[in-house]
Amino acid sequence: MGKTTSLAAVRNPIGNARGLPNEHYTDPETFKEEAKAVLFANWSGIGFGKDVPDNGDVRPVEFLGMPLLVMRNHDGEIGVFQNTCRHRGMILVSEAKNLRNTVRCPYHSWCYSLKGELKATPHVGGPGHNTHELIEPAELGLIRIRSHVWRDVIFVNISGDAPGFEECHADLLQRWQEFEQPLYHGGVASSFKLEVKTNWKLAVENYCESYHLPWVHPGLNSYSKLEDHYDIQQPQRYSGQGTYVYRQLTGEYEQTLADFNDLSKRWNTGAEYIALYPNVLFGVHRDHSFAIILEPLDCVNTVEHIELYYATDADADDNRSVLRETNARLWKTVFEEDIDVVEGMQKGRKGILFDGGRFSPAMDAPTHNFHQWVAGCLESSRAQRGSSEA
After folding, report:
1. Three-state DSSP class for 169?
2. Does the first or last residue of the chain, that is N or C, have fewer Cβ atoms within 10 Å of its Cβ?
3. Residue 291 forms beta bridges with which residues?
């Protein structure tokens, strides 16, 4: 572990707080510390249910170097496992596919069910002997990773000791309870990714505040102005922004996207954009939603995986296909407008005299909330590590 950074100033009230020190954006050793204390210790997004649509679908995912395997079993349930054979540690699946019934290790042909159970161990007791008294299949199933699917995002808790997802995020689930209804992915045009030369936290920080809208998003700001927004924050859980003036996209003949069912009037012109800590960004509107998973590659590179969802099935609602494509294109433009600023902040962190920066008490509460949460995760991890080393 590298030099331990000081977080005291980060934990101050917003009026005299400093942001996280430079090392949290530039230092590989600090990145490793955060991987364990922040990303592995909490519910992090790693993928989307839409990418394993059919029973038997499996998809390998690498999360911060850890090989994971997402599988949809024959009950339609999504499970996440370590993508490692329990025999000699071989990677089990190297590309997305449908396996029907069995995950077979390509090395010695040990076989697992889609629920991770060890089902076959060929010749483990010698040629022609497929069992051995010292090899107990019930104890050698794939290592299951705690997982939960919400709004089609697959969350995992690698450490295994975070509070349950629904307990941890009960406040947000209640806040958006009206949107607990079927989501339909918008199709090929509604799926894209952006490769950004920045630390993942800067993408969170930028997303959760509206302060930058007049200068970075002039098109959006032309009708959804700074004064039309409000801050959202739940200590230790999430933060973001909302708008009072969401305007539905209309087509050539004034058609609109289908609304979600039975929403309250506040959503007629309202929308909310929330960063669910640590690495998932959500947006909800009366007629569509989106989810963004931030995949940290290292301390200076992040991939943003973006998916858009609607209230109706694209295959059964072809007359709105142009609207969906236009909507995806507009959002892609907005997200691309943020690239220069998050990459610029990353470059700025090379300024060795930068002290973490200050927060506007009036405008930066969502970002300050995130910094305090990250600092709290790190302090808790450091305290546990110190206790175990004592």
Report:
1. coil
2. C
3. 282, 307
Encode pLDDT of 19-55 as tens digits: 999 999 999 999 999 999 999 999 999 999 999 999 9
Q: How far is CA 236 from CA 17, 79, 371, in A?
A: 17, 27, 10
Residue position matching structure tokens 């080393």: 389
User: Residue 358 carries which DSSP code?
Assistant: -
N- to C-terminal Cα distance for the chain?
Answer: 17
DSSP string, 42-79: S-EEEEEGGGS-STTEEEEEEETTEEEEEEE-TTS-EE
Could you give the CA distance from residue 261 to residue 273 in angstroms, rounded to a whole number? 20
Q: Of 117-126, 133-142, 167-176, 211-220, where does mean pLDDT reach its minimum?
A: 211-220
Q: Give the C-alpha separation, 25 to 198, whole Å.
A: 8
DSSP state of 300: T
What are the backbone dihedrals phi and psi of residue 357, each rounded to the nearest 5 degrees, phi first? 80, 170
Q: For the chain, where are the alpha helices, taking DSSP H only?
A: 23-26, 28-34, 165-168, 170-175, 200-207, 213-216, 218-221, 321-337, 339-348, 365-389
What pLDDT, in 10s, does the model give residues 198-210? 999 999 999 999 8
Preceding omega of 60 cis (within 30 degrees of 0): no
List phi, psi (to 5°) of 27. Answer: -100, 120
Say how many CA atoms lie within 13 Å of 107 toward its Cβ: 12
Q: Which residues of 126-147 are buried (b: 16+ CB within 10 A; e: fewer)?
A: eeeeeeeeebebeebbbeebbb
- Owner of token pair 């943020």: 338
Residue 1 has pLDDT above 50, yes or no: no
- Is 344:354 a contact under the CB 8 Å cutoff? no
**At 157, is the secondary structure helix, strand, or coil?**
strand
- One-character DSSP codes across 223-283: TS-GGGEEEEEETTTEEEEEES-----B-TTS-BPPPPTT--GGGSS-EEEEEETTTEEEE
